[in-house]
Amino acid sequence: MSIIENHQTHGAPFSDSPKLTARNVGVYYGDKQAIFDVSLDIGANEVIALIGPSGCGKSTFLRCLNRMNDTIDICRVTGDIELDKENIYDPKMDVVPLRARVGMVFQKPNPFPKSIYDNIAYGPRIHGLAHSRVELDEIVEKSLQRAGLWSEVKDRLHAPGTGLSGGQQQRLCIARTIAVDPEVILMDEPCSALDPIATAKIEELIDELRENYTIAIVTHSMQQAARVSQRTAYFHLGQLIEVNPTDQVFTTPEHALTEAYITGRFG
Amino acid sequence: MNYSSLIIVLLILLGGGYLLGRNKARAIANQGMTLHSLPTHYGALVALWTGLPPLLLLIIWSLFEQQVVDHLLVAQLPQQIQAGSSADIQLAISKVHNLASGTGLSASPELQPAVKHLQALESRTSMLHTGLILALALLGLAVTWRRVQNTLRARSEVERMVRYMLFASSGIAVLTTLGILASVLYEAWMFFGKVSIIEFLFGTSWSPQIALRADQSGSSGSFGAVPLFVGTLLISMIAMFIAVPVGLMSAIYLSEYATSRIRSFAKPALEILAGIPTVVYGFFAALTVAPVIRGIGESWGLDVSSESALAAGLVMGIMIIPFVSSLSDDVINAVPQSLRDGSYGLGATRSETVRQVVIPAALPGIVGAVMLAVSRAIGETMIVAMAAGLAANLTFNPLDSVTTVTVQIVTLLVGDQEFDSPKTLAAFALGLVLFLVTLVLNFVALKIVQKYREQYD
Question: What is the pLDDT of residues B326-339, one digit of tens each?
Fold first, then answer.
């Protein structure tokens, strides 16, 4: 433990063109502190992977970025998180447009108990993005195409979304997120419930999405982090240990803990 | 031997059988042989065979003893009674029973042979009964104890007997339902022999009095049940009109909005409503709500009767709120948090999430809760009896006094009644209708639930 007391993050946590900037972020569940003094930039149009052993706080940190932690009563966040220089924890900040700008894909595919079409149309409808049925149809088709699901479901748009396979469901959830046209997409272990083929499709998709979106992905698979991300951040017991370009993290890690984790000594 | 001591002896035998079986199995194991099952299984097997057959005999014996004894007694009655009607024979037999047990009032010398015969019979059957049962128990114990070998598959036999016992238990519940249904059907059939089914189902006048003497005035009753159906429908609708929106919204508040502190206080408080006896609701409705409604109605120039469907329906609605809210709260809580997260993650507000994600996902359960509440409303008696009156008015005016099916069943059966007059039998016909309506409601609810299940799972 002594190795990480008063820890300073190693590597390059900051970005020249940041989309999201987190400074000195701490998170408390009641009296228990889950995250200690994390400072990290997420650059525009990059994919950053957050890795670390279970319980290291990477999911908690991710959920701070669009204030999903608000739904947990006892959770308290300190420090600053800015989206395009705008403090998202400002009392005047409205979480509804924030979450439309910073979308989220969850660990377990969670399609709504509605048709495929209504799953995608859900976000545009609540945000009033479409002014006519035709426009809504267009958004649905475009989102499904971007998520690589259109050809598989175009003949059964009104079948229930829960009837799709696990991988299709997860791509449906990604399409649903894209439909509200976010700037950032947060992914919390999006492939952990999927088989390797479905995982490969999602990873391909993440790579394509990088053109238009900034993506932060929490993953337990180091191969996945290596395949999809440009930068990798290693979390350990609530502290951000090291942030570096992905190939550097996996070949020449700076910190001993990072090395121990990626060589499989724990986690 | 009387029943209680017989049962104690049986229990002792059963315990002994268990110990004997187990010890024999242990002894076999100690000789170095491998047992098929654990020693306790052998004990349980011996105990089951010691206890179950005598228990079965005991039940069958008590079911048929009376009939056999009575049958034997008939032969001992004087010729002229035997030649009489079955009612006369019944009367004579119950007199014999009374005389034999020493509580008979009239000394009837012509019955003496039968009384003597009965007393002799009773002492003999009692001996026979005790002897047979104990013999059966001991036989079961001995035979099964001898069967205890290392190769006896005691475990599977015990499992099989347990399965039969469980099957018998569930069979009792099903058979009871069928028995009730059969008896209601039979009595309703008798009723429809006296009153036409068309008149009963479609007649609009309900006045179920039957003359005790042929020359009595108002001797012709009429059994048109439509006013009762309408009254039931009216009151149930008023009740559901209150209970469904209030119950559902409080369930949504409790599960989605309330902090855990408020919830831990409010949910039990709501459930207390369900624990109040309906008779208390009844006088609350009759003495508090009905006069208030009348007062308000009069100040608006409306003609409100002092016992109104509205008062009964309102109070019944309040009574049903906890059914709807508590059950709906449970199903809403069962909606996975991941669905809510998904909705919040897209920037939906709490009410959008509730309306468009949580409620649709919980709908089958909510429909089930509402259907249960409807059945409860239709079956409710006390509040209506006290607050809505007994007058069978055919009206849809909630300010009028009406009556319901259940209330009429009660009034038909209260007091001394002949059990073959149309007035009494009408209660069974009404009961049958009530049963069928509830059955159909449950069936419809099941269908709705299945339909949405298919769509959402």
Answer: 889 888 988 888 89
Query: Tell me: the pLDDT tens digits for B395-406?
Result: 888 888 888 888
* A29 φ, ψ (degrees, to nearest 5): -105, 100
Beta strand pairing status for A10-11 and A32-43?
unpaired
pLDDT, tens digit (0-9, with 9 covering 90-100), for B172-228: 999 999 999 999 999 899 888 888 888 888 888 888 776 555 555 555 678 888 888
CA dist., res. B133 & res. B126, Å (int): 11
Banded pLDDT at A1 (limits 50, 70, 90): very low
Residues of B in contact with A127 (CB under 8 A): 347
In chain A, DSSP finds a helix count (H) and a strand count (E) of 10, 11
Q: A2-110+184-262 sits in which CATH class?
A: alpha beta
Q: Look up residue B186 and give its two tokens.
A: 């039979």
Say yes or no for a CB contact (<8 Å) between A177 and B344.
Answer: no
The model's pLDDT over A124-135, given as tens digits with 9 standing for 90+, comes to 999 998 899 999
Q: How far apart are CA A90 and CA B445, in angstroms?
A: 49
CB contact under 8 A, B456 and A160: yes
How many angstroms separate the CA atoms of B353 and B339, rounded? 9
Domains of chain B plus CATH, in order, are 3-152 (no CATH), 222-456 (1.10.3720.10)
**Residue B140, both tokens:** 């079961």
Distance of alpha carbon A111 from alpha carbon B281, whole angstroms? 45
**Burial (CB count within 10 angstroms: exposed 0-12, middle 13-18, buried 19+), residue B431:** buried
Cα distances from A222 to residues A197, A227, A242, A261, in angstroms, run: 17, 8, 15, 10
Q: Which residue has the tokens 């550097």?
A: A248
Domain residue extents for chain A: 2-110+184-262
List the beta bridge partners of residue A232: A49, A244
Phi/psi at A4 (5° precision): -115, 10
**Which residue intervals of B75-111 are DSSP H helices?**
79-82, 86-100
* Residue A192's pLDDT band (cuts 50, 70, 90): confident
Chain A interface disruption, residue of B346, B350, B353, B453, most A CBs within 10 A: B346
- Classify the C-alpha dihedral B209-B212-B214-B216 as positive or negative: negative
Nearest to B309 by CA among B232, B252, B380: B232
Q: Which residues pair with A38 in a beta bridge?
A: A25
In this complex, the residue of A95, A100, A162 whose CB is nearest that of residue B457 is A162
Helix (H, G, I), strand (E, B) or coil at A49: strand
Our CA-based measurement puts residue A260 at a distance from the nearest CA of chain B, in whole angstroms, of 33
Backbone angles phi, psi at A159, to 5 degrees: -80, 155
